[in-house]
Amino acid sequence: MDFIDLKTQYRRIKPSVDARIARVLEHGQYILGPEVSELERTLAEYVGAKHCIAASSGTDTLLIALMALDIGPGDEVITAPFTFFATGEMIAIAGAKPVFVDIDPRTYNLDPAKIEAAITSRTKAIMPVSLYGQCADFEAINAIACRHNLPVIEDGAQSFGATHHGKRSCGLSLIGSTSFFPSKPLGGYGDGGALFTNDDALAKLMREIRVHGQDRRYHHPRLGLNGRLDTLQAAVLLAKMEVFEDEVAARIRIGDRYTQLLNEAFAGSPGRVRTPYIENFNTCVYAQYTIEVDNREVFESKLKALGVPTAVHYPLALHMQPVFAHLGLPEGSFPFSEAAARRVISLPMHPYLTEEQQVAVVQAVREASG
Ligand SMILES: Cc1ncc(COP(=O)(O)O)c(C=O)c1O
Q: In what order do the strands lie in the sheet with 289-293?
């Protein structure tokens, strides 16, 4: 069993992927070719945003967003400590200070009730993460940001395709950022990412920063990056968009089925395995199907012996990472993030997981937790 099966998907979309790649090889416009603009139009429409800027990765998109908002040394950006490293890393790379606010332990996302206490005169943005495929509470976060006149950047690397109060992830705040890393809900065959906004001036800035800060060829009013998406990746992503709606529906069905099967399997011993909690105003695309268990290391090795691959997203909260030691945030600073980092484990999850495979995983989870 694969943790994420990309081969079955490829067999399904092979004619379109192969034809689109062949077309790129024929026209030869490998950098910002026509597929990149076509993808940007397709994704902007899908998200419901005015602008989409395709870029080199979900890491670079975070940095481009921060640079476009002119965030740098002396500034603070509020984010969650329980996330993939890139979220905090890019705030620090921009020269700013990541200011961590603990998560809501039910959703693993930034707890809006704790944000206001962390806002100072140096706060320049709030960057919530939509972890595991479920959006953070943007309605509540945007209201706080609005009161304090702060921009909100969604790190939607894991939530592309999810909805929040009926609106799509990446279209929920001033800037939305996502990743096309191959294992993501919309993944390419290499690195990639995209930014979304309704703001014309910000869109123009982010487009310029994506190409070395140039406003026309070889003229650079500002610094930027080599942050472009390859035309070949855009071609692959266009093929994947043809089946994406169907895959999102499958993800929701499979995630919900896991929860049902696990809750049935552990009905007699509640609390042994904690299944995901999805807010009733959200849909979750389950970039990861993540549960919580006691004695994770033992559980992990038992599942491995039973032939079920797992992964831990993430074993160390950001304030506990050696590189952030200078922030002076000792263990105990963010108890919910720290508890999650000790207890979470992700099960095999992708849109082509079969009922038989899910039943086998749940059976193995039962055995491993015994
Ligand atoms: C929450 C989060 N932010 C940022 C990133 C960075 O994306 P990428 O790997 O495309 O640079 C990822 C993905 O790995 C992620 O999960």
A: 273-274, 289-293, 344-347
Q: Is the CB–ligand 1 distance for residue 138 below 6 Å?
A: no
SS (H, E, C) 47-63: HCCCEEEEECCHHHHHH
**Over residues 264-279, mean pLDDT:** 94
State pTM to two decimals. 0.98
Q: Is the CB of 193 under 6 A from ligand 1?
A: yes
Interatomic CA distance for residues 304 and 320, integer angstroms: 27
Residue 264 Cα to ligand 1 midpoint, Å, equals 33
Instruction: Indicate if ligand 1 lies below 6 Å from the C-beta of 83.
Output: yes
Closest ligand 1 atom to 179 CA: 10
Nearest to 289 by CA among 269, 260, 266, 267: 260
pLDDT at 14 over 90: yes
30: cis peptide before it, omega within 30°?
no
Q: Is the pLDDT of residue 235 over 90?
A: yes
Give 352's pLDDT tier (boundaries 50, 70, 90).
Answer: very high
With a 6 Å cutoff on the Cβ, whether 179 touches ligand 1 is: yes
How does DSSP assign 291-350, residue by residue?
EEESSHHHHHHHHHHTT---B-S-SS-GGGSGGGGGG---TTSSHHHHHHHHHEEEEP--
The CB of 129 under 6 Å from ligand 1? The reply is yes
Q: Is the CB of 231 under 6 A from ligand 1?
A: no
Segment 204-229 shows an average pLDDT of 97
Cα-to-centroid distance, 220 and ligand 1 (Å)? 28
From 62, 119, 131, select the one nearest 93 (Cα to Cα): 62
pLDDT of the residue at 271: 84
Evaluated on CA atoms 203, 219, 32, 194, the torsion sign reads: negative
Dihedral, CA of residue 181, residue 36, residue 243 and residue 248, to nearest 10: 50
Mutate to test the pocket of ligand 1, among 4, 56, 57, 59 (most ligand atoms within 8 A of CB): 59
